[in-house]
UniProtKB/TrEMBL annotation:
Transmembrane segments: 20-45
Protein name according to UniProt: non-specific serine/threonine protein kinase
Keywords: ATP-binding, Kinase, Membrane, Nucleotide-binding, Phosphoprotein, Serine/threonine-protein kinase, Transferase, Transmembrane, Transmembrane helix
Region named Disordered: 118-139, 442-500
Length: 500
């Protein structure tokens, strides 16, 4: 009988085994089944493990990338006037449809190009400044649109290049965190300042125009006027009125000799003008505008020492609050309110704090932070508080002031400053109140030289602050109550009794 015989195999398989008396084929079936189940189990284990490993790897890669994208907060001790950006967030996520931004920051050639697919500008194009480059930069040499905005002009790139001698370095009058500023003269002889924006923070064209329109409608004699803008291809430029006498920082800290041209009265005029411009942003507009970068270099002056606040609305215009780009605290080191720096919580009280620092700077001629000074004097606020607490307020005045202010006037202005930098933001006065206090100081000053100040101008300016509102034209009784308030504030802050 052959082993291939079917009945033989059948007989063998049907034989009972010693395992529970089970037949051989049953045992074989069970073994095969168990092996299959084992193989399946091992296979599923492998697959799960592999998945875990690959997702774990991706997560750690993501973590590594995120960590790399959060730059460390840099505080450079040598320079204290740089714009400080505290980046709290992760890498920018550029939403679909928003133009990519390419920044080409050479040391000398500080050039920026917006890669704007929507407008057809060629990506990576370097900023040509000659008129010949205009066509390419303008996106196929398209004709400029006519501005549909009621307030200003839409300048062509060509117009601005002609006005600024082709945006040459000779025409550069300044460079800030938002871009390079060029001096220019239009064909109708209007002098302009052209700000070539460094970075539109991914803002789409239409949105940019809407924002510019909003800012362009703002008019006040203490705010630098925005005349128009240029949106062409990769370019975003803002065209401002030219303010012809430099900025406050230059006058306070520049090389002006032993005697400052800024007399006490001129300083008070600049302070009051700035306060009115800021008051208008805070209390004369709906929705209100928080400037976010009040500092000496943002206060331009004309030849009559009228203060003109610049850069207002830029933060909003450039969309820097937009959380999908990044969450930043913008401002300048030394001027930023503590609660804003710590939490990013922003309202007009942060501007009030910066304004308080500005008052101190104007009185003392010192920068908000000066690392070259002895330890107790590095921070202007701390030093000034100590000086006032030690009854040395007369010693804080800028040594470059030839004629010193009368003591009462000095103390009043110092008190306004101290109230503005109150660590409790809620306790800081509103801008309208600050203006009122500065104006009453003005009256009590008893200083006859009212440089360049029109005696009637004051009332006119007040009305400008708040259309229809009576922010500062308070009756004498109200002024008296404010004086009491200053005194009580002095006692609360442990200031010398002679101040009250
Ligand atoms: N409308 C203007 N008229 C005359 N000069 C101007 C005008 N706007 C700006 N400038 C000059 O250009 C400089 C640079 O201005 P910008 O506002 O860009 O920078 P900043 O205020 O110095 O710094 P940041 O913008 O980073 O805070 C200013 O200091 C100012 O002297």
């Amino acid at each position: 009988m052959s082993i291939y015989d079917g009945s033989f195999v059948n007989n063998q398989l049907s034989k009972r085994t010693s395992i529970f008396g089970l037949r051989l084929w049953v045992v074989i079936g069970i073994v095969v089944g168990v092996v299959i189940v084992l193989i399946l189990f091992l296979l599923s284990l492998c697959i799960t493990n592999c998945r875990r490993r690959s997702s774990g790897g991706a997560a750690s890669k993501r973590r590594r990338r995120t960590a790399a994208a959060v730059p460390a907060v840099e505080v450079t001790p040598v320079v204290n006037k740089e714009v400080m950006e505290i980046v709290h967030d992760t890498a920018p996520v550029v939403p679909q449809g928003v133009p990519e931004i390419q920044i080409d920051m050479g040391k000398v050639e500080h050039r920026v190009v917006f890669s704007d697919r929507a407008t057809g500008a060629s990506s990576g194009e370097s900023r040509g400044t000659s008129a010949a480059d205009t066509g390419s930069a303008g996106g196929s040499g398209a004709l400029p649109e006519v501005s549909h905005l009621g307030w200003g002009r839409w300048y062509t790139l060509r117009e601005l290049e002609i006005a600024t001698n082709g945006l040459t370095d000779e025409n550069v009058i300044g460079e800030g965190g938002y871009g390079i500023v060029y001096y220019g003269v239009l064909t109708d002889n209007t002098r302009i300042a052209v700000k070539n924006l460094l970075n539109n923070r991914g803002q789409a064209e239409r949105e940019f125009k809407v924002e510019v329109e909003a800012i362009g409608r703002v008019r006040h004699k203490n705010l630098v006027r925005l005349l128009g803008y240029c949106v062409e291809g990769a370019y975003r430029m803002l065209v401002y009125e030219y303010v012809d006498n430099g900025n406050l920082e230059q006058w306070l800290h520049g090389d002006v000799g032993d005697v400052s041209p800024l007399t006490w009265d001129i300083r008070m005029k600049i302070l009051l003008g700035t306060a009115k411009g800021l008051g208008y942003l805070h209390e004369g507009l709906e929705p209100k505008v928080v400037h976010r970068d009040i500092k000496a270099s943002n206060i331009l002056v004309d030849r009559q020492w009228n203060a003109k606040l610049s850069d207002f609305g830029l933060a909003k215009l450039l969309n820097s609050e937009n959380s999908y780009i990044t969450t930043r605290v913008m401002g300048t080191f030394g001027y930023v309110a503590p609660e804003y720096a710590c939490t990013g919580m922003l309202n007009e009280k942060s501007d009030i704090y910066s304004f308080g620092i500005l008052i101190m700077e104007i009185i003392t001629g010192r920068s908000p932070v000066e690392y070259s000074r002895p330890p107790g004097e590095i921070n202007l606020v701390d030093w000034l508080k100590t000086m006032v607490g030690n009854r040395k307020s007369e010693e804080v005045v800028d040594p470059k002031l030839k004629e010193r202010p009368v003591s009462k006037a000095l103390k009043r202005v110092l008190l306004v400053a101290l109230r503005c930098v109150d660590p409790d933001a809620q306790k800081r006065p509103k801008m309208g109140h600050v203006i009122h206090m500065l104006e009453s100081e003005d009256l009590l000053m008893g200083n006859e030289q009212r440089t360049g100040r029109e005696s009637s101008g004051s009332h006119h300016d007040n009305k400008n602050i708040h259309a229809g509102g009576d922010l500062v034209n308070k009756p004498p009784e109200a002024a008296a109550s404010d004086t009491n308030e200053i005194s009580s504030s002095a006692s609360k802050q442990n200031l010398p009794a002679s101040w009250r």
